[in-house]
User: What shape does this take?
Amino acid sequence: MGHATTDAVTDTGASGHILSFANEVYDADDKNKIGTDQGICFRTVPGKAWECFWTLSLDKGQLTVEGPFYDSGYSVLAITGGTGEFAGALGEMALSARGTKGDAYNFVYRIK
Assistant: This one.
């Protein structure tokens, strides 16, 4: 689970918005910090969708993710690679909001 503590939206005028973040990531029970993530999202469909790119950093390596993040509902992004124990990783990551505040998310990584 990720905590959205550093999210910042930059208004770039009529062309859209940019969301940047660097957050702590916790285990499924939301008890133990297991790593960090950092990345950027660009607003593609106002009020509906972003296109995102980020890196999850864990003790045993990193995973990179890319794809759409929807304002509501369920999103599935591609795992595009990794380092360390995750070198050459591919697969998908499911993303959904925890609650309605927009400050916590569930991430489920499925590495192939």
